[in-house]
Task: structure prediction
Amino acid sequence: MRTPKHHLISLIKITNYPEDMLAGDLFCNRLQYYREAELEEVGDKFEATAVSRPLYKLIDEELLLSPVFCMYSVEATKKDDTSKIQISDERLKKFGQYAIVITDVKEFINRTNSNLRDFSYEAVRYIDMKNPEGIYSQAIFNPIVTKDKYFKYQQEFRIFSHAWSLSNNTDFMLPNVKYVSEKWKKFPVGDLEDIAKLYDTKDLFSGVNVELKIDWDFCRKDKFQTKLPKLKSK
Result:
């Protein structure tokens, strides 16, 4: 029997500042912020790990300057009931009081592509950073979207750019970028209120009925993850 393909049917931003995203401003921290953050469940000492070995970890220092926008991804198959959005891990409450549910993933990605040049996006892969296997036993593939298995409950979807250094105050690519500090910026993708619903985060634990517009072919999860190279045989 074939394993059903998973699809990203919705994306959720859990935050204390919902107005920013509803207006289409993606609040991006440096990746370094997530590495150094002392906030429980946010800080991850393995961020930007390019090589992991029992005796050492090699960090890709350039990646630490990359702006990153993090969301929670909701997965389903065509056989699932997609009329209700529900999350279960209580640790997610620590990310904010409000939850913005994207109701049309394809349109959200289209607006991101239209407004943010030199940005990419992927569903995060989760591996055992302490004991990597397969292709990851040689090096961590695309470290910015590869995290330790401990954080798998976050089901992250990341929008990011290798081209931007947030220590640079020259916004030569996007004149509407809002420079706030050397640590973060807001990147505009256009108003999102027509494809976003605002809820209290706590309501998502009992479940909320949401009318989603799903392009099943576009939303296949494997389209949001770079295909891994095959491990060379010895």
